[in-house]
TrEMBL record:
It comes from Streptomyces aidingensis. Residues 561-640 form the DUF7824 domain. Residues 423-454, 658-688 are annotated as: Disordered. This is DUF7824 domain-containing protein.
Length: 921
């Protein structure tokens, strides 16, 4: 038998041993001298040993920083190519260990300046460059004389180093004593400034890092040499930087656009450069583009520049007329007002150009703000007489006439009078005929739910999608109802587990690889994991005790009671599968999309249980009773007799429930017996609804978790740590949406889009649910209309229209809820301007009569207040839009008095517009 050959020991020259000694003792300064004696072969061999030392140092305890610094320096000198050397120097485990840059230049000297220049360029382009790395590169570049790197990371770090140098060297000595060191002083002395400062205009988001100046900064602040804009402008005046390049760079960045924080720096630099009229005239096209498309601050500066050019007689009337429509198209009122003011000034100074300039005003006729429309009409009234009457100018008059069709009726009549051609001004929004149906969404609550998949593979695919959505906390797709899909899939699992558990387990087995929780009985014992506990029961993961669980989580708020009821049903079904007594089907699966179950269908299911000789599950039957759609008095007796003939005790309970009739609606009283239910705590923006006395449920409910739903609920706190399956809450007690909204409204509607992890689909589900809609439901919808997220406001609008389609929308209740939320104390959680925007969205969808009904109830109270809310103008604008379309026959109380007051605010203007629309009926 032969022995295995022992690994050959690495033979190192004496100089390499000296380098290793410096590394082992942590002395980086002793590395360059012996390393210079090694050739390429010796350095290559030494690099292999250094790699072994690198791993050993990380495994050894203690402070190894000096050793790793020497190791980093030695390894840099052993690499043959610049790419490998750069990778070694910037390795995550080595880069924080520093050494003298002069030593690095010494170990790299044998490679030559060209090699060093390529290394420096690679280091300067490293995406993770930090300030210490920059200082190493800077020192290496100055030691070797290699070209300065121009990479984006290096430029960013240079700018940061200049800022740090200004901060840490606060004083410099002058002839008169000590003076503060400004950024101008640092840049003037830095040899990199002429090379790297022009790169600012080529790097994305550089302006945000350099920092601009606050809006309204004075000229002294803009020229301050302690700031970047003032320092660069001063260097341009001194000739150190190319002034023309700076001007062109600023214009290029501003026209190109970028992040909102980028333009501030370049706008400040452009101002600090103080361009002359000639330089500004050369770039008139840039200022026109900025005034039309740039952010508001930049657009205002560009408008001021155009005004300056006009005053200097360097801007022609034709150019001003050409650029004005794009500026007037903007939504910012300040920008539009400034442009109308410039046009007014131009028309006063050059009245002979009215044929060119007045048609440009036409774009403002279509602005959504009526005060700007009114300003544009006043400008037309002031200068219309100057319109030439020659045949060649008919195009200008025709353009004004066509654009005037976009004005409100009151202003349209004024424009028709000014232009003298009323027949060319038809109303583009004819009033809807009385009795015209609104465009409201269809109500689909009576649609059947549909049978679950009968094939194991199809059902497994649906279950996989639900488990993945739960694991990733993804939002459901728009228009979907995950709770109904859950009920349908759960029924399919129960049916297939009874019919062929082996085939179902084979189809579900791949899910265990994607969801490890399905293999962990301990976790499933403590947590329901939605469908996971039933899937684990089919797969055989759970024992009987695991399926029953640990009694459920503690009930901390009302939401947890609904969760406990759902948990009881899942545990019960899983336990029956594990113990070999699976249910053939679920009794409580809803029969239609509204969550209700027809009594005839429940009787048929009980008859199937009796035929198979299977005992119904307690929680499943309790849930079925809560979902029962109660028939009319003429059908009760026959259905009760059929239920009693089923031959099961549950049939007798169903017969008694049918004979008793539907439960009474929950009492809105804030008391339950002799014990008052305290209101929820007042938390700004997260105030829940007053707790209701309890849900009226049939007395035949036996399971403790479902009996708890009928007991007085605790007050809903400002934050509930319970789960958030809003659809499951409504399906637990279908027909009782007012009670659900009263108990859990604070969870359905939060302060902003992220509150409670809620979904935009919560409010539409509440609106689609059957049952009375009282103050709690309307309060939830009112809060949703003021939500922060666009998706949540759109969902609230859908819910409002759905409720109107059911003829369950009470305009008075909605108006009272909105009035409470428009008060100043509710402003932290509810932005009134969002509410007005949501109502406008509802009106634009075609629900003008619905929105008008709400506003007709809301406006009288707001108009009567001594200091109406600022959103009054927006609400009056929505009301006027509706009134111009439907011509209602009533006028809100106090409107005439408010419209008659003097003043030119938007609220006054919109009130007069509304009064005019109502008078035109």
């Amino acid at each position: 038998m032969t022995r295995a050959a022992a690994p050959r020991a690495t033979v190192l020259p004496p100089a390499a041993h000296a380098v290793l000694a410096a590394v082992d003792t942590g002395r980086p300064a002793d590395v360059p001298a012996p390393l210079a004696e090694l050739g390429d072969a010796g350095r290559r061999t030494l690099l292999e040993v250094l790699g072994q030392r690198r791993r050993a140092f990380h495994e050894q305890p203690g402070d190894r920083r000096p050793h790793l610094s020497a190791l980093r320096l030695a390894g840099a000198g052993c690499h043959r190519g610049p790419a490998g050397c750069a990778q070694w120097l910037m390795a995550s485990d080595l880069r924080r260990h520093r050494f003298n840059p002069a030593d690095l230049a010494a170990v790299l000297a044998p490679r030559g300046p060209r090699w060093a220049g390529e290394l420096i360029e690679r280091l300067g382009d490293h995406p993770g460059l930090l300030l210490p790395d920059y200082r190493m590169i800077e020192a290496l570049q100055r030691e070797t004389g290699a070209p300065v790197p121009l990479g984006e990371p290096f430029v960013r770090m240079w700018a940061l180093a200049v800022t740090e140098r200004t901060r840490h060297v606060p004083r410099r000595r002058t002839r008169t004593g000590l003076a503060p060191v400004t950024r101008l002083d640092v840049l003037r002395e830095d040899p990199y400034t002429p090379l790297l400062a022009p790169r600012f205009f080529e790097i994305d988001r550089m302006g945000g890092e350099l920092g601009g100046l606050p809006a309204g900064a004075t000229p002294e602040e803009i020229r301050d040499p302690r700031q970047w804009p003032g320092a660069l402008a001063a260097l341009a005046r001194e000739g150190l930087l190319d002034r023309r390049a700076l001007l062109e760079g600023c214009c290029s960045v501003l026209v190109r656009g970028g992040r909102a924080d980028d333009p501030g720096f370049f706008l400040a630099l452009l101002t600090a450069l103080e361009p002359t009229d000639q330089e500004l005239e050369f770039r008139t096209g840039d200022w026109a583009v900025l005034a039309a498309d740039a952010p508001s601050a930049v657009a205002a500066w560009a408008q001021g520049t155009l005004r300056r050019l006009w005053e200097a007689d360097r801007l022609s009337a034709a150019t001003l007329a050409q650029l004005s429509p794009a500026v007037l198209f903007r939504t910012e009122k300040k920008v539009v007002r400034a442009q109308l003011s410039l046009l007014d000034r131009a028309l006063r100074q050059r009245p002979e150009q009215a044929g060119l300039l007045l048609p440009a005003v036409a774009e403002a006729f279509a602005h959504p703000d009526i005060t700007l429309q009114e300003r544009a009409v006043r400008l037309l009234a002031r200068h219309a007489r100057r319109l030439p009457g020659a045949a060649g100018q008919e195009r200008a008059r025709q353009r004004l006439t066509e654009a005037a069709a976009g004005l409100t009726p009151m202003l349209r009549a004024r424009a028709a009078e000014l232009l003298g051609e009323p027949e060319l001004l038809p109303d583009p929004r004819p009033a809807a005929p009385a009795g015209t149906a609104e465009a409201l969404p269809p109500y689909r609550g009576q649609e059947p739910l549909g049978a679950p998949p009968a094939e194991p593979a199809t059902l497994a695919a649906e279950v996989a999608a639900m488990l993945a959505e739960t694991a990733s906390a993804r939002r459901p797709a728009a228009g979907s109802q995950p709770a109904l899909d859950f009920e349908r899939a759960l029924d399919g699992l129960i049916r297939l587990a009874h019919r062929d558990r082996t085939a179902l387990a084979g189809a579900l087995q791949p899910l265990a690889g994607h969801h490890p929780v399905l293999r962990d009985a301990k976790v499933l014992r403590e947590d329901t994991c939605r469908l996971g506990v039933v899937v684990a029961a089919v797969l055989g993961t759970l024992g009987p005790a695991d399926a029953l669980g640990d009694g459920g989580a503690a009930v901390r708020c009302a939401a947890d009671r609904f969760r406990a009821a759902l948990d009881a049903r899942l545990r019960e079904a899983a336990h029956r599968i594990v113990t070999g007594d699976p249910l053939p089907l679920l009794l409580a699966t809803p029969g239609s999309r509204d969550g209700l179950l027809a009594p005839g269908e429940l009787i048929r299911r009980l008859a199937e249980y009796a035929r198979l000789g299977v005992r119904p599950a307690a929680a499943d039957f309790d849930q079925a009773l809560l979902r029962l759609r109660h028939p009319g008095p003429e059908e009760r007796a026959g259905l009760a007799a059929r239920a009693g003939a089923a031959g099961l005790p549950e049939g007798d309970r169903l017969a008694a429930c049918l004979a008793a009739g539907p439960p009474r609606p929950p009492s809105p009283s804030p008391h339950s017996g002799d014990h008052p239910v305290p209101p929820p705590p007042v938390i700004p923006g997260r105030q829940g609804h007053p707790a209701m006395a309890g849900l009226a449920v049939p007395g035949q409910v036996r399971t403790p978790e479902f009996r708890a739903l009928a007991e007085p609920f605790p007050a809903v706190p400002g934050w509930c740590p319970g789960s958030h399956p809003a659809g499951h809450w409504l399906l637990a007690v279908p027909g009782q949406r007012e009670a659900v909204a009263g108990q859990l409204g604070a969870l359905l509607v939060g302060e902003n889009a992220a509150d409670w992890g809620r979904s935009p689909e919560d409010l539409p589900l509440l609106a689609e649910a059957p049952g009375p809609a009282g103050a709690a439901v309307h309060d939830c919808l009112a809060r949703g209309l003021g939500s922060a997220g666009d998706a949540h406001r759109a969902a609230a609008v859908d819910a409002l229209l759905t409720l109107a389609a059911q003829r369950r929308l009470d305009a008075g209740l909605m108006a009272r809820s909105l009035a409470r939320l428009l008060r100043p104390e509710a402003a932290l959680a509810h932005r009134p301007v969002r509410t007005a925007a949501a109502l406008a969205m509802a009106a634009e969808s075609g629900a003008h009569r619905t929105v008008w009904a709400v506003l007709a109830e809301l406006l009288p109270g707001l108009l009567a207040e001594a200091r109406p809310p600022r959103v009054l103008g927006d609400l009056l604008a929505v009301a006027a839009d509706c009134a111009e379309r439907i011509r209602p026959g009533t006028e809100p109380a106090g409107l005439a008095e408010y419209a008659a007051r003097r003043g030119g605010s938007r609220a006054r203007t919109e009130a007069r517009r509304l009064a005019a629309a109502l008078a035109a009926r």
